Amino acid sequence: MKNSCSRRSLLALLTGGIGWLATRPIAQAAKTAVKHVFASAKTPEGYDPTKHHWLMCIDVDRCIGCGTCAEACKAENGVPRGASYFRTWVERYIIKKPGSNAALRGDVVVDSPNGGQGGFPPSLVPRQDILKAFFVPKLCNLCEHSPCAQACPVGATFDTPDGVVLVDPTYCIGCGFCIQACPYGCRFMNPETHTAEKCTLCYHRITRGLKPACAEVCPTQARIFGDLKNPTENDPLQEFIKKNKVFTLKPHLGTEPRVLYANIDKEVR
Amino acid sequence: MQRMPPQVLRLVLLTIAIVATYGVARALLTPATFGRYGHYRGAALEETASRTPLYAGAKACNECHDDVSGKATKGHKTISCESCHGPTRAHARDPDVATVKLTDNTCLRCHLSDPARPPRHKQIVTIEHYPGDRCIECHLPHQPNKSP
């Protein structure tokens, strides 16, 4: 009886196997080199995402509702024009006086015409009916347990080591699940690229040592931005947390937002 | 040596072929930077960061205009130049490129009376506060409590 596994075929099999193992790293290196040429991005040199942890906090008492932040964000990030595309925006909360019933406060009227861009028009609620009113700037809450990242079926949304939640537009298939999943309404579908978009904390600015555009232009320093891993002397972020009672939006959802709000009212969602 | 039954040999070869195909496909399809920081494409961070900033920052303004920025007083002292003057990167590269034109609306977007603005913030009702006059006729933009 002739053995079917001859010396010749075994040697051929072994050579093939060793050949495959040997060419694998070479093929991978070649692929990396090709990718590097085609996807060479001008990134700031010497930036290590593992050595930073960025955070933005909001002081609601300081916001005057000028909407400069919303405008600067659109310009800086090329966000599509149109009243439903925002990475950051400002809301005006008006809490009316209670009616005849024994309530502490009346109806809450919230508006954000064009995201607050260009300032707010006079409110339709007459002044004598207003119990109190304030502006609330909104942006991505940079959740510790992001519902958007969990909902993404292709893993296009992720947490970076420096504390930002980003979208990889080359992975995003535009299904919109993340937009539904975000309890803060911070995402939208870009009508041109058909991919999900959101606040990146101006990733292209913070990696170059600049503040995000909204924090840069805020005339009243209502947006406090800093690096938790590299606190400076009299760090504004550390001072803000020390001096204020801070709160997060919708804490009951367990999303663990990292963005902290100071002096916020219970009506704010 | 006992000969391997042909059906077992076929199964072994098939298994090896499937595993090898998976290995090759995985090596070819996984992006080079996948897994650098986590379960995602590491190069996505660099691609997001590759955008060019439009707002140059106060440092860029101060290189030429430190005479103006240093003299701002009162409430306008801490305001960034680009809050009112708009994105300045193009202007910083080529001073002939003008920044945005400022109008009364630039003032009013912050100083128009609104119940939601903090009471300590200076606000006006336009029909009561010198209607028809321009803001800069009475207020210096950089020293708002001084008149020209």
Name the structural class of chain A: alpha+beta
Number of helices of chain A: 7
Largest interface: A-B, 71 and 50 residues
At CATH level 2, the architecture of the largest domain in chain A is 2-Layer Sandwich
The span between the termini of chain B is 107 Å
Biggest pleated-sheet summary of chain B: none
Q: What can be said about this structure in brief?
A:
Chain A is of the alpha+beta class and 269 residues long. Chain A contains seven helices and eleven strands. Chain A folds into two domains: 52-143 and 199-262, Alpha-Beta Plaits (2-Layer Sandwich); 147-197, Alpha-Beta Plaits (2-Layer Sandwich).
Structural features, described:
The complex is a heterodimer of chains A (269) and B (148). Chain A contains seven helices and eleven strands. Chain A is of the alpha+beta class. Chain A has two domains: 156 residues, Alpha-Beta Plaits (2-Layer Sandwich), CATH 3.30.70; 51 residues, Alpha-Beta Plaits (2-Layer Sandwich). In chain A, a hairpin with a 5-residue loop joins strand 5 and strand 6. Chain B is mainly alpha-helical and 148 residues long. Helices cover 41% and strands 0% of the residues of chain B. Chain B is rod-shaped and about 105 Å long. The interface between A and B is large, with 71 and 50 residues.
Write out key terms for the chains shown:
heterodimer, A: 269 residues, alpha+beta, Alpha-Beta Plaits, 2 domains, four-stranded mixed β-sheet, three-stranded antiparallel β-sheet, 11 strands, 17% strand, elongated, B: 148 residues, mainly alpha, 3 domains, 6 helices, 41% helix
Layout of strands and helices, then pairs:
The complex is a heterodimer of chains A (about 270) and B (about 150).
Chain A: H1 7-38, E1 54-59, H2 68-77, E2 89-96, E3 108-111, E4 130-138, H3 147-151, E5 157-159, E6 165-167, H4 177-181, E7 188-189, E8 196-197, H5 203-206, H6 213-217, E9 223-227, H7 236-243, E10 246-247, E11 260-262
Parallel strand pairs in A: 1-11
Antiparallel strand pairs in A: 1-9, 2-3, 2-4, 5-6, 7-8, 10-11
Chain B: H1 6-29, H2 43-49, H3 58-69, H4 81-85, H5 89-93, H6 104-111
